[in-house]
Each structure stands twice: as structure tokens, then as C-alpha cells.
Amino acid sequence: MTRAWLLPTLFLASGAAVAAGLIVRGSTREGVILLVAFTLLAALNSPLVFPRSLSAAEARRRSAADGRPIVFWRPGCAYCLRLRFRLRRHARRLHWVDIWRDPEAAAAVRAVNDGNETVPTVFVAGQPHTNPDPAWVRARIARPGR
Fold it and tell me: Are residues 8 and 22 in the same domain?
């Protein structure tokens, strides 16, 4: 859990420190702008922008029942963020699994990516697809299991 919040915390702390320095020197406007920018970076790299994460076992169970794809991701991953934002509202129809929270999920990703924790890895009908195009994933949501 703490590992997922490390990067956002660092962004927020760094932004606060630099902004405080600017404000003390009399550059209040620049300090506030910088603090807002670092806060946005922290938010974008936090687990908050992703749908609630499931365990790998629960995601597999739900996927078997409804045919929806499973996305293995981790906080701070630019490609995961890209997938999440390009899917827009459709992202909530997928089963999201944070590999930093679930060792079984991390092992599943390593098993299909030559020992690497390459994310996003999307499982559609049991078949892994590493860093797929968001349009392709969106099409799989519309037609589960294909």
C-alpha cells in the first residue's frame, strides 16, 4: 500500500518545498502555480485515478462470470495512465488489478512477460496482451471474449 503512494507523496512534498521557497522570496504567484502543478502530478500518479483494484483471484472469478477483460497495472505507470484515460468511462467496465498490492498478480504478469512486470497487461478470454492499444481494449469491452 505505501509503495503505491510513494511517488505521489514525493511530488507533493517536493512541490510544497519549492513553492514555500518561492513564497518566502516574494514570488507568491509562482509558488502557488507550482504547488498546483505538483499537486496535479501527484493526483495523476496516485491510485485514485483508477477504478477500485481487485485481487487477481477475484478478477479472474468475475471475468469468468461476465467475460470482461482484466487489466494488471501499477501506480506511476505512464502506459497504464494512458490506457485509463483513453478508455474514459469504459474503464470502469474492466477488472483492474494492482500488481503492487497483489503478489499473485505480479507473478501472473511476470509469467507472461519473460519475467518482467510489464504493465498494462490485459487478459482477454484468458489470453495476455501487453500494452495493447486502448482502442483495441475498448472493442473487447463491447464484445467480451473476442
Answer: yes
